[in-house]
Amino acid sequence: MSTTPLWTSSWTIRFLLVPAAILATAAAPARAPGQRPAGDSALAARNEALLQAAARRDARGAARFFPRRGTWDWVRASPKRGGETLIRRFAAAETARVIGLGGPACELFDGPRGSVGPLSDASLAIQANMYGARWRRVGATRFVSPETDETPPVFVEWRREGQTWVVSRIGVRRHYTPPSPGPERNLVTPNGSGGEFATAQRWFTRQEAIEFRSARYGPYGLARPLAAAEVTRVGALDGVGVYAEAGARGVPDVLYVMVGPDRYQPYTMFAPPTCHHLTPADATP
Q1: Can you tell me the distance from the alpha carbon of 29 to that of 50, in angstroms, rounded to the nearest whole number?
Q2: Rounded distance, CA 97 to CA 64, Å?
């Protein structure tokens, strides 16, 4: 007959442990519906810090948020339904060169510089300046711009690299490419007068390119209201007033074509952002 005490038997230990496990589970605080796991606030703060660097057009500072190994993706989706989405994959070791002045993705942290209306959906710098650094979270690791009624959304997606959150993908809308000019070149007459609206013009309804001082422009985004003090007339096309941002000099990055009372359709210059023509030596110290 065994002399082992009853309280040391394996069956007794199992019986005693079961209630303890149940009590431990019941004592653990339940996560409220929609509440994110601990540590998620660190990701939100990191995304905000990246966008703050973007708002400063600080590509060098932004580079520290990218991976140190592996790759990351630059996704450029067409704003047109059924349009092509372009994806470029870059090695982590090339990030500083890729997003710096003269790099293939420099427009992420650069872009046209102005204050009237959205100028570029391909630039995190413009998005962060327009909408701030606190973006809406979608899913576990993606943040989208707070802009409304725009598709596809501009986003930043993250992944873990050891204990650090790093950029995995950045998604933007790529620049509009206007069609090649036909036999009629749609030339804007500098300082021309006109009080007509563009909505009745063939070049407007067909979304054709227009030309101003040897530069080509294509329609971009939706028409928007602007106060008279925000723009200044620079010319006319077929009796339609063509405007630029108030105070703009030389050849502007964006033109505004009148489509109704105090409503204007933006036309962006068909040219790569300025940063593509610069090198790191051009940076201001």
Answers
A1: 33
A2: 13
